[in-house]
Design goal:
With 190 residues, the chain is mainly beta. Helices cover 6% and strands 46% of the residues. It folds into 2 domains: 5-153, no CATH class; 156-190, no CATH class.
Length: 190
């Protein structure tokens, strides 16, 4: 199975002065429709039958899992506004949307299935996950499956370049005003 996971981080900034009004969305595009997707409160669905931008606003937990042949890709968060799933012609996507302030969404890429996330979601919801001795979801998959992080939003002027290695990192997203009627958003690490 060829699987290339591309994390599309979409930033939706409303033109309101209050930071609490900003919404942060992380979408994971998975280049196949063979996987099974688990949606909390709904259950398992074939990736080729998720619908077009199907939104779940009141799930019991904010995570989504896409898995096939013991390879798990997913997203998990302690809180959120919605879960979104989508089927395309040759791919499917899973997405979590939450308020930008204090946002935290985990990218999961390991062996297993949705139960790997279910086993740790209460710790994530409590805010204690990163305090664990080894906050992981399982075993790494080596270099066989590349993961790329891409920021994309045509109505923003994104500045900054950040590269991360292994471990836990803090990503800082700052609104630095406007240029040519587009918000200038700087991205950096701490």
């Amino acid at each position: 199975m060829k699987l290339k996971a591309v994390l599309m981080v979409l930033l939706f900034f409303l033109l309101l002065p209050c930071a609490k009004a900003y919404v942060f969305s992380v979408r994971l595009n998975i280049n196949n429709t063979d996987n099974t997707v688990y949606i909390p409160g709904v259950g398992q669905k074939p990736a080729n039958n998720l619908g077009t931008n199907t939104v779940y606003t009141n799930p019991p937990h904010f995570y989504l899992a896409s898995f096939l042949n013991n390879v798990l890709t997913g997203l998990a968060a302690g809180t959120g506004n919605s879960l979104v799933v989508n089927t395309g012609e040759k791919n499917h996507s899973i997405e979590i949307t939450q308020n930008l302030e204090n946002s935290e969404i985990f990218l999961i890429f390991t062996r297993g299935n949705w139960k790997n996330i279910e086993n740790v979601i209460k710790i994530i919801e409590s805010g204690e996950f990163l305090l664990e001795v080894s906050p992981t979801f399982g075993f790494g998959l080596g270099t066989l499956y590349p993961v790329k992080l891409i920021l994309f939003y045509s109505e923003l002027n994104l500045t900054g370049s950040v590269m991360f290695g292994k471990g836990s990192h803090k990503l800082i997203i700052e609104n630095n005003g406007f240029e040519n009627e587009k918000p200038i958003i700087n991205i950096r690490s701490e």
